[in-house]
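User: Sorry, what's this?
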Amino acid sequence: MGIEFDLEVRPGYLSLVCAGELTQESFAEVYEKALAAAQAHGVKAVLLDGRAVTARPQSILERFNMGHGAAELQRKYSLRCFVAIVAHPPVADPQKFGETVAANRGILGGVYFDIDEALAAIAERLDTKRS
């Protein structure tokens, strides 16, 4: 089935409200579409709202591959974009292993369990970029 999303351009960032089933392939597809849209709209932040996404528990290798793949996609697009992902376990890893993998490869952003925290992180990042 994959992941479907509604994209909305907001002041300074894109919001993608996602629904469907998380797999390595569906994550890579949505992440790449988000980066392409961010580049096309000239924004420096993306909110991937995955609260309606479902998933079976992911293996550590799958989580590694998703974090690594996200970093590779950002390199492909030569884009320094802050990406905030909001999801609940088991979609989001409570230990945030994939986030750590991505951060170790230069990704800006993070995994959040609360939408308000993710929006605050985006707002902080946008304010920092303006200063």
